[in-house]
Amino acid sequence: MLVIRLARHGRKNWPTYRLVLQEKEWAPMSKAIETLGNMDPHTNPVTLSLKTERIKYWLEKGAQTSNTVHNLLVSQGVIIGEKRRVVTKGKKVV
User: Fold this and answer.
1) Per residue of the chain (94 residues), what is the pLDDT tens digit?
2) Got the DSSP string for 40-59?
3) Contacts by 27-36 with C-beta closer than 8 Å and gap 24+?
4) Are 88 and 37 in contact (CB under 8 A)?
5) What is the pTM of this model?
6) Residues 86, 46: Cα–Cα separation, whole Å
7) How many Cβ atoms from other residues are within 10 Å of residue 32's Cβ?
8) CA-to-CA distance for 47 and 16, rounded, in angstroms?
9) How far apart are CA 48 and CA 41, in angstroms?
10) Is 27 helix (H, G, I), strand (E, B) or coil?
11) CB-based contacts of 81: which residues, under 8 Å, 6+ apart?
């Protein structure tokens, strides 16, 4: 199954992210079938460039999105729908 998700790039303590199309079983840092955009979270506002036509094409072909990417695309108006709840792996509070 194909999935659109974020892959972390950049240098130490200064990440940038790429929206990539990959097989679901592949690790996020492994090779990508196609790069669909990038995001720099350090600018104010966040710099985001998307290849909207290619994203829509792959979604029509059956690609799924991660929850974070889905929320990003909804907020940018690329797709229509409600945002999903994002669960992150964090520290347990005792």
Assistant:
1) 999 999 999 999 999 999 999 999 998 888 999 999 999 999 999 899 999 999 999 999 999 999 999 999 999 999 999 999 988 777 766 6
2) ETTSSSPEEEE-HHHHHHHH
3) 32/7, 33/2, 34/58, 36/4
4) no
5) 0.86
6) 19
7) 17
8) 10
9) 8
10) coil
11) 70, 74
Q: Tell me if the bond preceding 41 is cis, omega within 30° of 0.
A: no
Fill in the amino acid letter for 54.
R
Residue 83, token pair as written in the block: 């945002």
Residue 46 in tokens = 């966040």
**Tokens describing residue 8:** 């972390």
Residue with tokens 């199309």: 21
